[in-house]
Amino acid sequence: MPRGRNLISGTIFEHANEPAYVMDPQHDRILAANDAGCAMLGYTREELLETPISRIHPAELAELQELLERVLREGRASTIKLTCRTKRGTFLPTEISLHGFEAGGRIQILGLVQDRSEHRQPAPDWAFG
Amino acid sequence: MIRLFGPLSVEDGERKLGPRDLGGTRPKQVLEILLTARGHRVPTDRLIELLWGREPPGDPTGSLQTFVSVLRRHLTPERERARELVVTEPEAYRFATELVALDLDRFDQLLEGSAREPTRLARASLEQALGLVRGEVFEDEPYAAWALDLRGSYQGRILGAHLEAAEAALAELDFAAALAHAEAAAALDRFSERAHRTEMLALYALDRPHEALGRYRSFRMRLDEELGLEPTAETRALEAAVIRQEDVHSLLPRPIRRAQADPGERAFRLFGRIAELEALKQAVRNAIGGGVALIQIEGETGLGKTRLIDELSAELEDVRVGRASCSELERHLPYVPLAAALRDALTGVDLDAAPLPALSQILPELALVEAKHEFDELDVLEALVALIVKHAPLVLLLDDLQWADPRTLAALEYLRRRGGDVSAALVTAARATDVSPEHPLRRLKPDALVALEPLSPDELAPLGIPGLYESTGGNPRFVTETLANGRSAALSPTLTEALLAQCRGEGTWGYRVLVAASVLGQPFEPEPLADLLGTDAAELTEELERLCERRILRIEGLRFRFRYDLVRQVLLASISPARQRLLHQRLAALAAESSPFSITQTTSSMTG
Question: Cβ of A78 and B551 within 8 Å?
Fold first, then answer.
């Protein structure tokens, strides 16, 4: 892979087996999510991109903010403390590794997430639609 | 201590307040909402909305003020203290959680800390965290809006703690405890694949294979009937292993033995400093064995004092370790760095200030209800000695001591003189060259002094960078920056490069191992990777374990795999086609020579 290629639109991001998200921390938005990321949270891609990050971590805003600040300061941060709320309301224990990078002059965050419980979920309705 | 697990309770020595002792339902709810914000301000509008919804009373602000007033009165009879705890801010209130111990905070500290601890300590931390769980968060408020999300979030965290504790217990061959945690996790999440897999493994290890297979069947049936899913390949593989009666030890996770530093703080290996680190370790050992010692690291800016403390800290075992840095902005505040280090060392310890009231002068959070009282400085220091005696062996690491407040410095000297045969070491780092001759730091009499000098050309030689010593003068900070810039860590314009830079930050050898590992199918065994790299498998395994501790790889039974497949794919994609071809040829040759390694495993990864 040539250096400098944009990973977000690349197949590596799209087809990675692990949930991965690109986030805009300043605007509380998820900018991109791969298939595994959508499946873990039970959303369609369109739904997920319309869902604020704060809705995925409703009771953890202060902790999330501290973590994001660490990423902005140090380039990366990881935690096993945060949980992610799925569309169905289940809170999954996760290991989250955040990596900061610059795209188009803006700081964005890549979040690599593992569902530590490996919670199995039914296929979302959209999968059959 | 304020407990939110189970029914709300406020405990201060003998005084215990339950949900009914806070002046009524509304004042109690105000306290709950403020505590949910974990020290952040809650606007009065938000409080009113949460308390009354769409039907507020005629004067909601006045009613809220009344509830706050009632709450303060019930929380503590001391008015000023009450106002310090429930803080009035412009159009908002805040609960000063930094002045109290909150069970949720302690749970989080223990859980987060366990991720960086070796297995034995991690397991103890997780058990301690789970010991705090007396029930659901805000048990007495089952339907309140502010309680629901927090409760759900902690259900997830508790589930995670049980899963980690189960795995740690498996690694330590305590199968009964592993089973208990796995069952607790499975009860919390009926569809958790990992919980059920851990249950199966624990049962198999307990020589109960039929029950292990029974759990598998019932889980598979549940998945099929309720979700229309099959167990994952990993769980099916475990079932197959149980049926084949495979050696259980080949299926168990392996314990991590070394403590782990914060991944973000140790991008490069320590170069040189072997003698200095050994001298520090020896001085600490002497102190633990023979009485309090003050051990000082001295050196100018950038010579690696903090890094040396990192390394020392990572190697300390079987002692309580507390670490803090002094701040120039806080040098007028008494005991702040000492208190921070003590809090760190005593994380998870339920400190009772009643027998040592003077201790609250150092740790103000211990005086929740009692009126503020000025203690004689000698009483404070004696209380400190008693605390350390009680929790020894203990090592306190204080960085940037040149900015410590005079009381912390006096306390260090007092401990050194008074400590006698207490098992404790006080390790400090200071830029002594930056302080005036009158500075109290000059009057400290360390028992051991480690003075840092720039790195020598010989110490930098293994890096293989021509002119590095000449350009940096052997200053470790300049060396690190040179290496970082050379690897474009801070300049990466794209995410791919950022991830690659982080892998390169593991050093030349670590990066080479990662790149080669990215070629293998996942999970991979160390032997084929060692063959691919032409190195010794045992040495390579040590590096793989280190990369696991750095949370880039993970241990899976007797094999390893990338923690995030995305990182593997980025590494794989970064290899030039020519190198890919060479690696592919070498893998094919190895597979042909050696039947244990599957050729399909190696080649599939090359194409995938």
Answer: yes
To which H or E segment does residue B42 belong? strand B42-43
Do residues B372 and B359 make contact, with C-beta atoms less than 8 angstroms apart?
no
Alpha helices in B321-376 (DSSP H): 336-345
Domain holding A35: CATH number? 3.30.450.20
Put simply, whether A54 touches B (Cβ < 8 Å) is no
The answer to whether the beta carbons of residues B61 and B45 sit under 8 Å apart is no
Q: What is the pTM of this model?
A: 0.65
- Domains, chain B, ranges and CATH? 2-101 (1.10.10.10), 104-250 (1.25.40.10), 263-451 (3.40.50.300), 457-486 (no CATH), 495-607 (1.10.10)
Smallest CA-to-CA distance from B602 within B450, B585, B417 is with B585
Instruction: Kindly state whether residue A21 falls inside one of the protein's structural domains.
Output: yes
Number of domains in chain A: 1
C-alpha pair distances (Å), B564 with each of A17, A38, B134, B492: 8, 16, 35, 20
User: Do the domain assignments include residue A100?
Assistant: yes
Strand-pair partners of B12: B15
Q: Answer whether A58 sits within 8 Å of B149, measured CB to CB.
A: yes
Which chain A residues are closer than 8 Å to B495 by Cβ? 6-8, 22, 99, 101, 103, 108, 110
- pLDDT: which is higher, B570 or B268: B570
DSSP output for B577-602: HHHHHHHHHHHHHHHHH-TTS-HHHH
Helices B193-205 and B175-188: crossing angle in degrees, nearest 10, is 150
Dihedral angle of Cα B100, B102, B107, B109, to the nearest 10 degrees: -30
Within-domain flag for A110: yes
pLDDT of residue B490 exceeding 50: no
A66-95 residues touching B, CB cutoff 8 A: 70, 74-81, 83-85, 89-95
Q: Do B495 and A8 touch (CB under 8 A)?
A: yes
Å from B69 to nearest chain A CA?
27
Which residue blocks in A1-129 are alpha helix, DSSP H? 11-15, 35-41, 45-50, 53-56, 61-74
pLDDT digits (tens, 9 = 90+) for B64-114: 999 999 999 999 888 898 999 999 999 999 999 888 899 999 999 999 989
Residues of chain A with pLDDT under 50: 1-5, 8-9, 128-129
Identify the sign of the CA torsion B124, B2, B104, B196. Answer: positive
Neighbours of B336 (CB within 10 A): 20
Q: For residue B93, what pLDDT is reported?
A: 96
Report if residue A113 sits inside a domain: yes
Cβ-defined contacts of B531-537 (< 8 Å, 24+)? B531/B590, B531/B594, B532/B583, B532/B586, B532/B587, B532/B590
pLDDT band at B241 (very low <50, low <70, confident <90, very high): very high
Identify the pLDDT of residue B222.
Answer: 95
**Taking the CA atoms of chain A, what radius of gyration do you get in angstroms?**
14
The 10 Å Cβ neighbour count of residue B300 is 14
- Domain span including residue A61: 13-117
Question: pLDDT tens-digit profile of B595-605?
Answer: 544 434 444 44
Residue B280 in this model has a pLDDT that exceeds 80? yes
pLDDT (0 to 100) of residue B383: 87
Using an 8 Å Cβ cutoff, are B320 and B345 in contact? Answer: yes
